[in-house]
Queue: 3 jobs
Job 1
Amino acid sequence: MTKNQFKRILFKVSGEAMMGNSDFGHNEEAISNICQQIVQAKSNDCQICIVVGGGNIFRGISAAANGMDRVSADYMGMLATCINAMALQSALEKHNIDTRIQSAIPMNTICEPYIKRKASRHLERGRIVIFAAGTGNPFFTTDTAAVLRAVEMKCDAIFKGTQVDGVYSSDPKKDKTATRYDELSYKEVIKQDLKVMDQTAITLAKDNKLPIVVFSIKGQNALSNVLANKAKFTIIN
């Protein structure tokens, strides 16, 4: 992976990443770290759009497992991503970064509706675009939304920040014998059922030949270090 390979990327930020060491909600230090990473990467002339999850506030699939109607639970999860998008926008604007939120569920009072051409134009003008509310449909994860938006925006790759420095054969926090991969094919991820993204997202990335870069979101300048090939990561292509 070369530094100049990626001119436009989609950065997938999980809700858990915004929670930091807290048990729920937002952690100011964690959000600040995410913003610093985005600012640093943007300073290297990289166009960045973001899809943010909502797991720090509400998990639709967990609520459905406990008896809530799945459709209602998923819509509640989508609204949680909108809250996170607003928190991230506020933090980025403290760094004088021009930012726009576009939501798959129209809510004109607080953000723009998702319009592909408008989002692309924002990126061309150097703005950060945060895509909220997933795909706008129940039964689809924010991972699938990230791949969908990355394809629509003609991004060079998805960068998924996680709690570990790549993809492992099993959870390295629980299994000390877990194998770390530097590179994987889409077929290997699907065949081994590796928990990188759900299989709908992986299949969509495969069909559109969209690379997925998985790295640790911890530490300063993690995103720009991976972009510059100065940190560990796993690339799926």
Note: The chain has one domain: 3-236.
Job 2
Amino acid sequence: MRIPLVAGNWKMNTTVNEAEILVYTMLEKLEQIDGVEKVLCPPFVSLVAINIMLQNSSISLGAQNMHFENKGAYTGEISPPMLSELCEYVILGHSERRWYFGETDGIINKKIKAAFTNKLTPILCVGERLEDNEAGKTEEIIGKQLRAALNGTEPVSDLVLAYEPVWAIGTGKAASNEQATATIGFIRNLLAELWNKGIAQDLRIIYGGSVTNTNIAELISQKEIDGVLVGGASLKAEEFLSIVDQTAAIKRNIQ
């Protein structure tokens, strides 16, 4: 049985002090919610402080990005070994990295391999833009992204895939249940083709894009959706707690 996962991507928000306050506000209640894996992904500057706060808790820590080299003359970058002492997860291939910072499929492939080598679990994001969606190219675009990202990798269950349609991120317009379910089903079938059916069934595939405490119930009720990657709502303690709590309760009922 795939354990549902809810990850909060704080993006470029919160100072170290604000991050500590947010975690302090949620920590006790998050600990009380069973049956779901919880991951917090604050900015790099807060990783050490939040790592300390999460010691001996059931909550995992993730980074929002990383470089693919272990060290070198890459001013301003963060390497996999730097993160592996602090985190269990790292978000890779997010659409904001692809479109704002020009990350190519080839770069993301190098990062995926570096994460595996350094015992970090990637949360690999794939997703199509609005024009691709409207042109019926969703599967074509996601297929290209997934094949490139996993090129040359060995089948492992230590990977999380996140379907994040670009047109739904930060817009308040989430994909419909039918859209999300169909696309995640396509991703799982493609994984079976690229790796094998056993791994494809074991891997968690989550949804991201304008997830809120009001639409989580419908999304997470879909059997194919194994959790969510939450953006803006993860910065609001009560809303994020509600998303985690609803996810745990609904998945228990489905089981």
Note: The chain has a mean pLDDT of 95.
Job 3
Amino acid sequence: MYRIAHISDLHIKKEEHDANTQIFLDLLADIVKRNCNHLFITGDITDNANDEEYSKVKNLLSKCNFLNSATLTVTIGNHDIFGGAKKGPEVFLFPTECKNTNYYNKVKKFHEQFNESFEQAKLLDEDTVFPFLKILNDKIAIIGINSIAEWSSDLNPTGSNGNINDNNLKSIKDILTSKKIRNKLKIILIHHQFNKPVKGKLDDEQNMWLYSERRTMRLHNKKRIFKLFKKTGFDLILHGHTHITNSHKLKGSLFVNSSASVIPFTKDKKKRYHIINIPDKTERGNKFTLDVITL
């Protein structure tokens, strides 16, 4: 059995007594205890994408033997590019800070900081880094995608919305239709969610929050993106961004979200993540099973 832990949205801060750091350490200890072979992190690994935060994350991953390409695969989140809004009266400056962010330098920095994770990955474009392909255990194809939109006053004013441009969509299509991964389990790693809050279910706190943030936490062009995924074929999409851990099906496709692993935006405040269990031999068409872990 090959076991993969999926976590997301760690938001590690540079402060010495950052509570998220201790939670992350406890989370890693639990993952090790459960004999996981590999770790996926789907974005917002840092809170403000600075060197101190990256250093803290990497040190903890290294202590738990996850800082190498055979055991770690990461994709990028909006905080890993634009950071987060300041608290207090300077919050109004955040859109301007997002506008002035060098998007491509931040993506390259993410790649450089986690170069150990990318060593066994095939990059279709060295300059843009994403999308990439990594083969695990000779039968699992991992497609890592950057879903963070570039800054735009209309489409992404505060850096948290998503988009995938035409060039990246073509590269994703090339990966998903490659003969190299034809008979492998195909797992897509992406930060943004595809489901949207349902207006008629606003009695749920999480859904109410997502609905109120629907213009600042959306994935633009998601119908076209999902159509490409479905047409070319995949088995599983793992994402984060919403700070809730759940799974759901969309037109028969399974989406798994583990973004409440450190900072849950839920009423019960319980931290949860998923483990994907992949059997050595597929029986009765079951390619994998999914466990929900509560800390």
Note: The mean pLDDT is 94.
